[in-house]
Amino acid sequence: MLNSLFIFLGCFFVAFLFLISLHHSFFWDTIQLGSLHAHYYSSTLFSNFLLPDSMDSGHIPAFGMYLSLFWIFLGRSLWISHMAMLPFVIGILWQIYQLSKHFIEPKYRGLAFFMVLIDPTLSAQMILVSPDVPLMFFFLWSINHILYNNKKGLSICIAFLFLISMRGMMISFCLLLMDVIKNVFSKKQTWKEYFFLLLKRSEIYLPALFIFVTYNYFHYLEKGWIGFHNDSPWAEHFEKTDLKGFIYNIGILGWRMLDFGKVGIWLIFFFLIIKNRNRIFSLFPKGSKLNLLLFSFLIFATLLPLNMLWAKSLLNPRYLLPIYILFALFVATLLFSKNVVKEKTRIFLVGFWMIILLTGNFWIYPPKVSQGWDSSLAHIPYYSLRTEALRYLDQQAIPLEEVASFFPNQGSLDHTDLSGDPRKFSVFDNQVPYALYSNVFNISDEEYQTLQNQYTIIKEFREGRIYFRLYHKTPTPQ
Question: Which strands sit side by side in the sheet containing 455-463, from one edge to the other?
């Protein structure tokens, strides 16, 4: 009964969020990775396979192609775009439930399903038209195929991960190591037998490798670059950092692992370890499910962020979603293992987990502290407030070209809202008379200080702790 209740609550939670987001505009990176790509392919009817350099971020643009097909056949609208995500959202629910069935005691499966599902970053992505939704679906499905040694299913999932993004390729490498641990090295063999098993196992990954080599070879022949180029709008994010920057990024990675309520899961983990410190090794017997989850988490936590740590600005919280989900599943499995804690303590820890994760959606930092706004539900009021601000500007007959704004509010209204309106805000350069700012924008300290010192707030639109402010440039004294 309790299992069914929490499975229902989890599905209801996601369904509610999905329904209220059907008319939300494109947000954050989805404007480029979703809307811009889909606009290009739907407007050109796939006459060109490769994207123009101005919107080509090096990924195989399969997600934009997928979305554009929905627009071509069903109409170009926000709700159609969100509906394109529905199969993957349902798939994520199903795959998390299957993982709960595999790792969690029957008595607690529904609870574990709900506890993993309410991760704020996962919840936030599932209400966006985002390539991370299919990416998470194929990632979770891959794990289930590894657990049941379904070679054909795993091969298909890995191929789709390669099609979605370069990050999907890195996830696939981590899955390869997880697969080898589970389905090759778990068997007692000679080194010669291991070699031939690995060779045979590699067949699973050949279709994905073929996709990668073929696309990038064609891309290089046509454009002369792979991944990114020096004139790319995102080139600065891929710039290599020095040792000091690397160490700083390790600190940021640690913050990301604790952010939006995830600190609660870590506290539960350390509590369980300390509580069972005298029998710690008996908790992780050789060949156990807990061991597999622990090794899998360590593989992803070590390798997935590796190329991000050496880059200037690549540690977006959503990039770490596979790590979050694996760790949550690992700690949930430990929590629901027999003889780890008393039942009353377990109930308390479950309640603590749920409360701190759900309230993690309300973690909002001061204006000068950047945060992953596409990685928690805190940003939801943004959409209606932005609409209200746009309506006010029209009512006051203030032209948008006289209003500066910031990412992600700088593209055309059509690309963001699918409204057919080609107008767009100016880039903030301290020259135009107005500026529209929201605390959802991660602007630089210099830009924020300029707004405070040289502009005056003439209108504010607020819901809770999220706001838009319309500024007017203060006349310079003569």
Answer: 426-427, 403-405, 434-438, 466-473, 455-463
Per residue in 56-86, pLDDT (tens digit) is: 888 899 999 999 999 999 999 999 999 999 9
Amino acid code (one letter) for 370: S
Quote the CA–CA distance of 38 and 61 in Å, as a whole number: 9
- pLDDT digit string (tens) for 13-26? 999 999 999 999 99
Dihedral angle sign, alpha carbons of residues 52, 55, 59, 62: negative
Range of the domain at 430: 380-473
Same domain assignment for residues 78 and 120: yes
Same domain flag for 323 and 387: no
Pick from 300, 330, 362: which residue ends a domain?
A: 362
Residue reference for tokens 């100016």: 426
Q: Is residue 167 part of a domain?
A: yes
Domain's final residue, options 362, 393, 423: 362
Q: How many domains does the chain have?
A: 2
The structure tokens listed for 87 are 């199969």
How much is the pTM?
Answer: 0.95
Residue 463, φ and ψ in degrees, nearest 5: -140, 110
User: Token pair for residue 86?
Assistant: 């529905």
Question: What is the DSSP secondary-structure string of 222-267?
Answer: HHS-SS--TT-TTGGGGPBP-HHHHHHHHHHHHHHHHTTTTHHHHH
